Amino acid sequence: MIGYVEERESARYWFGNEDERILELVAGRYMGANPPVPFALRAFSKAGILQNRDGLYDLDFSERLPQAEEGDYVYAFGLVWSEGERSIDGVMEVLGPVRLFVNEKLEYRSTVVDELDPNARIKVPLTFGYGWNSLLIEARKTASGFGCRFGADEAKVRIMQVLAPFADRKGSAGWVYSEPVKSADFGEAGQAFPDWRKSEADSGRKWLPAVQWQYRELALPNLERMYGRPDRTAAGYGWSSIRVPASAAKLELSGRSYGPAQIWLDDRMVVRVAESGAFRAEIDVTPGVNQILVRAVSSHDGWGFELQAAAQGRTLPLSQPVTVHGNTSPWLYLAPLPVEATYTPAQIRSIQSPFAGLDGFVYWTVDAPSTRVRPYYENAMLSNKWTTGGATNYGRWDYPLGVTMYGLLRTAQALDRPDMEKYALSHIESCAQMYEYSLWDLEEYGFPAINHQLVLIKMLDNCGSFGSAMLEAYLSGGQPEFRKIADTIADFMLTQLERREDGAFYRLCEGEYSANTMWADDLYMSGPFLIRYSQATGDPAAINEAARQFLLYRRYLLMEDQGVMSHVYDFKYGKPTRIPWGRGNGWVLFSLSELLERLPEDHKDREDLLAMFRELSAGIAALQSDSGLWHQVLNRPDAYLEASCTAMFVYAFSRGVRMGWLDRTGPYAEAAMKGWEGLARHAIDLQGNVHGVCSGSRYSYSPYYYMDDLRTVLNDNHGIGIVMLAGVEIMQLKAALMRSADERS
């Protein structure tokens, strides 16, 4: 077998030259395997363990437990879900003696060197199995410190969300930690670990943060209990829902208000209470689920409300208006708000952004001490099983999904499939609509729970690719939020990104393996976004910058003797790696075709960029294998055949011929056709799975890193979108060649 798919199981075998069917196959499989699952809403205690800007959980107990004495022990306990077996690097910053247990197995024990080194940062290999995995950290107080900081390496990419153990807290987010104890409780010979499936009481220990109110607190009105009594008049909301039986025509609402109040059923105000006291009202009602919204104003009598509902003589239960895991109450609450602030019921019934409160922004809470509603991206948490459909990538902002969404948008247009366009737009909107919230979440909790890479922009990988897909949607009538986010990304690229003395983008990355390097990949991570940003704004500055970067990168990375690009230039060594990684070259040629399509004909750099495109096209075309695929390392016939770079070369050659940048009588049209046929025959199977895509890469001066260490991953998002784009361009190339033939005849 030359490629990855047996002939009879290939898309080519069953669909032949029906390119539309193959495109539908790949796009349909992706959407089916990645359903539009929303962010998970969870109860989270602000009084609990927070993360720092590196994504490490701050388990420093020195200030959190000042009553602890030297020699005392504390335990932090949590759960991590994994969609399949997964190994990641954990990071431990030790503040004192600690031990880490994963699934009740000791994985790390600090040394005296670790404990006394304030800069110690230890990598701890972690392996998680399918389902729930328990984490238990034991910390002992000494004069050197008390606790640790712990999390996943590259936490904004390798998301490790910790959920609370114990049946009492099921569904809540965050660690629990014990009160100080005098002796080691768990992990010693014969001592059982706490059972996270049972109640906290069964563990024999009291765990924090508290989730139950004290008796005196329960006696207070609900809003006063959660927010205190404000020093000036404030408003607050309660939000719930009710299912009215089909046979009911009337609904009876009764209860008590501690101050003025208004009640809405869906968008209709049904009760107005002028002052403190009991109320009762019978109202016409539509059967089915109705939203209940209560606005309560603070008064000298207190702040809050009580409400019951009945129909046909029966009490009707209230239920959560949106599912918040870990919330045992049917209500969500929002306060304190300025009393003069006015909102429609529809505006209030939203989880998309925080609200302007009396002393800063506020968001929804639940009826428990210091407990907030918090949205989380956790669809593919700690999983590589998503590559075979085990979880969903929907709602994630990252660069491989940027090219995937672009591929879906172009495929939808080519096949006239509004459903595909709707899916891609919905994914992009899920990130954009929560942007304001995610910025607030970062400031409020130290590390975001959604939109990790967008709000923690540090490098081009974090913003350019998905930002480009977002602008592609914006230019076709997308939402205003898209432009606001694009402005932030453009400011980062044009005014904040690290540059060499000549203005070339590069990766400073101090203290990291990639410090002081330039990557061919970054022409894709920047160029397509800058091109579209100029279109969106009408300002040529961004596209001019893109043109400049291509010519600067050529100086550093072009292997002139072979007509291909080195993957990386390492300024630490003062030379390029001279390894022409396939996908690295693919990013360059793909992005250069995007630039040439939109660059004005009279642009001062156009001829130089056309020469660069032709030079690279000639060098790459000469290295195509007989199968139609290109090799992982382009100039190494002993390297494996790789699908994503092949798709990018098919895309670029097809566009080059169609738009007249490449000679139609040259080898490029044939190379594109042969490459697409190779993908359909050797890399795309009859279920629409895409094989032979190299996993995400680091870099090396050795070709064997790319050939042996970087293996292919089934349905890797680095390849799915570009395969769709290649198919779209092949369809357009074939149509153009057919028109040309008709004209000649």
Pick out its properties.
about 750 residues; six-stranded antiparallel β-sheet; 21 helices; alpha+beta; single chain
Question: Which helices and strands appear, and what pairs or packs with what?
Answer:
Layout: H1 11-15, H2 19-33, E1 40-45, E2 57-60, H3 61-64, E3 73-82, E4 86-94, E5 98-102, E6 105-109, H4 112-116, E7 122-128, E8 131-140, E9 147-152, E10 176-178, E11 207-208, H5 215-218, H6 222-227, E12 234-244, E13 250-257, E14 261-265, E15 268-273, E16 277-284, E17 288-297, E18 305-311, E19 314-316, E20 318-319, E21 332-338, H7 345-348, E22 355-357, E23 360-362, E24 371-376, H8 399-415, H9 418-432, H10 435-445, H11 452-455, H12 464-475, H13 480-496, E25 517-519, H14 522-537, H15 541-557, E26 558-559, E27 564-565, E28 568-570, E29 575-576, H16 582-598, H17 606-621, E30 630-631, E31 641-642, H18 643-658, H19 668-682, E32 693-694, H20 703-709, E33 712-713, H21 717-744
Antiparallel strand pairs: 1-24, 2-9, 3-8, 3-10, 4-7, 4-9, 5-6, 5-8, 10-11, 12-17, 12-20, 12-21, 13-16, 13-18, 14-15, 14-17, 18-19, 22-23, 25-28, 26-27, 28-29, 30-31, 32-33
Count of DSSP H/I helices: 21
Low-confidence sequence ranges: 383-390
Mean pLDDT, nearest integer? 94
Helix content: 25-40%
**DSSP strand (E) fraction?**
15-25%
Shape: globular
> What kind of sheet is the major sheet?
6 strands, antiparallel
- Strands, count: 33
Give the strand order, joined by hyphens, for the main sheet: 6-5-8-3-10-11
Instruction: Give the assembly state of these chains.
Output: single chain
Q: Specify the structural class.
A: alpha+beta
Task: Give me the Rg, rounded.
Answer: 29 Å
